[in-house]
């Protein structure tokens, strides 16, 4: 079994702050920067790559887009990095507290089609 949790915290790959929650590490001059899939092999790479990878990405993006369209979501403590638990699948200790509110839709310009 490949230990992706450990690989994602290798100082030789990610630098001195490899254990810190620093989302800006994925940005370069304010733009998203992709990393080599060999550095972060969640779905593995090469000829034995996960066949469901693209489908998983499509599902993740669809679900996130739907949630963002329907709800306003705010993380309660944005400056606190959640503590991780290490079962077979990675979990956050205590979850990720959020405030979720339904978005108010502007229906003044909505049109309906009737039959």
TrEMBL record:
<dbReference type="GO" id="GO:0016705">
    <property type="term" value="F:oxidoreductase activity, acting on paired donors, with incorporation or reduction of molecular oxygen"/>
</dbReference>
<keyword id="KW-0479">Metal-binding</keyword>
<dbReference type="GO" id="GO:0005506">
    <property type="term" value="F:iron ion binding"/>
</dbReference>
<dbReference type="InterPro" id="IPR036396">
    <property type="entry name" value="Cyt_P450_sf"/>
</dbReference>
<dbReference type="InterPro" id="IPR001128">
    <property type="entry name" value="Cyt_P450"/>
</dbReference>
<dbReference type="GO" id="GO:0020037">
    <property type="term" value="F:heme binding"/>
</dbReference>
<dbReference type="InterPro" id="IPR017972">
    <property type="entry name" value="Cyt_P450_CS"/>
</dbReference>
<dbReference type="GO" id="GO:0004497">
    <property type="term" value="F:monooxygenase activity"/>
</dbReference>
<keyword id="KW-0560">Oxidoreductase</keyword>
<dbReference type="Pfam" id="PF00067">
    <property type="entry name" value="p450"/>
</dbReference>
<keyword id="KW-0349">Heme</keyword>
<dbReference type="GO" id="GO:0006629">
    <property type="term" value="P:lipid metabolic process"/>
</dbReference>
<comment type="similarity">
    <text>Belongs to the cytochrome P450 family.</text>
</comment>
<protein>
    <recommendedName>
        <fullName>Cytochrome P450</fullName>
    </recommendedName>
</protein>
<keyword id="KW-0503">Monooxygenase</keyword>
<keyword id="KW-0408">Iron</keyword>
């Amino acid at each position: 079994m490949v230990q992706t949790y450990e690989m994602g915290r290798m100082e030789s790959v990610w630098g001195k702050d490899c254990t810190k929650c620093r989302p800006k590490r994925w940005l370069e001059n304010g733009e998203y920067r992709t990393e080599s899939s060999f550095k972060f092999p969640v779905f593995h790479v090469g000829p034995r790559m996960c066949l469901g990878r693209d489908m998983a990405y499509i599902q993740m993006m669809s679900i996130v887009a739907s949630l963002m369209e329907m709800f306003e979501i705010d993380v309660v403590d944005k400056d606190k990095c959640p503590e991780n638990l290490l079962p077979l699948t990675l979990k956050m200790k205590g979850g990720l507290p959020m405030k979720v509110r339904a978005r108010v839709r502007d229906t003044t310009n909505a049109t309906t089609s009737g039959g």
